[in-house]
């Protein structure tokens, strides 16, 4: 099962459609509501871009102008409402995102894929710095989550739980990788060191690369 290619791919568009299922709103109210509910931790929310998102949704028939409000000398405000096509699109899109694991490209994975250019001792120092920050994030997020549990049903906190779990998992992986760097048990670490001492690619690295990419 693959994800369907959608007319709009900006996750903010999905958040807007889901929110408009509650009632018609203008972009500023949408932004304020998403921020008030803490959705800005999972979706990049920019007030200016919300207007563009709303206009694109209208262009594709997923939302429509429900009302134009005018109050005295204030600029008019356009309220958008969800259409039947928008409800269907939002439901299908959300279902796809929940059911089908998408290949994402986190920047940390990019850095890990290129870390050989740095000396292993430097990588150790940098990852120790990262681990310290991750542990602070975990402690802060766990404390915040416990307080939120006191006032909100868990249903509304599942994305925060997931974020915490992912940070904890990353911290655990970094911790284990650092142990291997410290005790020298990481396969290839000596050749890695030799590369930085001599400037020459070790033969075993060349052999691995050839075997890995041979057809």
How would you characterize the overall build of this protein?
The protein is mainly alpha-helical and 215 residues long. The chain contains 9 helices and 2 strands; from the N terminus they run H-H-H-E-E-H-H-H-H-H-H. The protein has helices at 11-20, 27-36, 47-59, 84-99, 107-113, 120-149, 158-183, 189-198, 203-213, and strands at residues 63-69, 77-82. It has a two-stranded antiparallel sheet with strand order 1-2. Helix 1 packs across helix 3. The two termini are 28 Å apart. The mean pLDDT is 91.
The major sheet is characterized as: 2 strands, antiparallel
User: Spans of 5+ residues with little confidence (pLDDT < 50)?
Assistant: none
Supply the number of helical segments: 9
Q: How much beta, percentage-wise?
A: 5-15%
Mean pLDDT: 91
Radius of gyration over C-alpha positions, nearest whole angstrom: 24 Å
Tell me the span between the first and last alpha carbons. 28 Å
Q: Which strand order do you get reading across the main beta sheet?
A: 1-2
User: What gross morphology would you assign?
Assistant: elongated
Sheet/helix structural class: mainly alpha
N-to-C series of helices and strands: HHHEEHHHHHH
- Oligomer description: single chain
Helix content: 55-70%
Q: State the total count of DSSP E strands.
A: 2
């Amino acid at each position: 099962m693959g994800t369907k290619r959608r007319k709009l791919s900006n996750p903010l568009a999905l958040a807007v459609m889901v929110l408009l299922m509650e009632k018609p709103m203008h972009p500023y109210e949408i932004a304020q509501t998403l921020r008030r509910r803490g959705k800005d931790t999972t979706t990049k929310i920019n007030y200016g871009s919300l207007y563009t998102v709303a206009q694109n949704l209208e262009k594709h028939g997923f939302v429509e102008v429900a009302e134009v409000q005018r109050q005295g000398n204030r600029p008019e405000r356009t309220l958008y409402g969800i259409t039947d096509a928008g409800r269907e699109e939002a439901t299908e899109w959300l279902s796809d995102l929940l059911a089908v694991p998408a290949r994402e490209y986190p920047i940390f994975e990019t850095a890990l894929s290129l870390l050989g250019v740095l000396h292993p001792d430097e990588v150790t120092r940098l990852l120790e710095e990262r681990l310290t920050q991750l542990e602070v994030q975990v402690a802060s997020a766990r404390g915040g989550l416990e307080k939120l549990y006191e006032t909100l049903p868990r249903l509304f906190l599942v994305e925060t739980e997931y974020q915490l779990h992912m940070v904890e998992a990353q911290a655990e992986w970094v911790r284990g990788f650092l142990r291997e760097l410290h005790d020298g048990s990481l396969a290839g670490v000596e050749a890695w060191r030799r590369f930085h001492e001599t400037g020459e690619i070790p033969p075993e690295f060349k052999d691995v690369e050839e075997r890995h990419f041979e057809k």
